[in-house]
Amino acid sequence: MAAKRLLVELYYDVVSPYSYFGFEALCRYRQPWDMDLKLKPIYLGGIMKAANNKPPLMVPNRGLYMVKDLSRLSKYYQVPFKIPEEFVEWVSTKSTINSQRFLCALEIHSPEHVEATTRAFYERIFGQNKEIMSFECLPEVAKAAKVPQDVIDKCVKAVNSEEVKAALIKYTDEAIALKAFGAPTIVAHIAGKKQMYFGQDRLLLLAHEAGKPWLGPLAEAKL
């Protein structure tokens, strides 16, 4: 009997820099881990509120460390990255509800474009240092991800639909039920059980418990 494929679920918000590295790493490990990766957009603000948590940049000393940490991770994962100068203002005054709902709309209407659009959101905010919170930026991001225009139009129109709102609430509530307190929250289905991991730096533990190889941040280069 063939071995069962590993299922990993990534609960993420495109405003989370650590989720960016976790997302890219998991995408690289599909083949080495014989893995199905399920992307689950969540509303990070709801997770933080439910867990009574604070964004790292809201804690001064942690924020100072975070800037250095992300620079190191950018080199380690070989993912171009820069924190926008307006980042603290954006996360303090704006919401990613539009971007997260747009990803949910894509999952409903054209799931094959979720991964590329997720990457386009990350590249926009942490590469081009442009905001990703406004409704107006959604078509631009989707075009950068090469989503067909008819799909863009359908998903933009669906952002405020009850179906899409319910999808985002469902994934956010799932994460809260798992006792998530931030992003990325990663769930691996191992031996019939759900194992939760927080942070992109716990992937080596996931690999160990799933009996999979850990090949560092550039798995594809070592195949």
TrEMBL record:
It holds the Pfam family DSBA. It comes from the Eukaryota. The keyword Transferase applies. Residues 8-208 form the DSBA-like thioredoxin domain. It catalyses: RX + glutathione = an S-substituted glutathione + a halide anion + H(+). Its EC number is 2.5.1.18. The active site is at S16. One of its GO terms (molecular function) is glutathione transferase activity. GO terms for biological process: glutathione metabolic process. Belongs to the GST superfamily. Kappa family. This is Glutathione S-transferase kappa. It comes from Blattisocius dentriticus. The lineage of its organism: Eukaryota, Metazoa, Ecdysozoa, Arthropoda, Chelicerata. The gene is GST1.
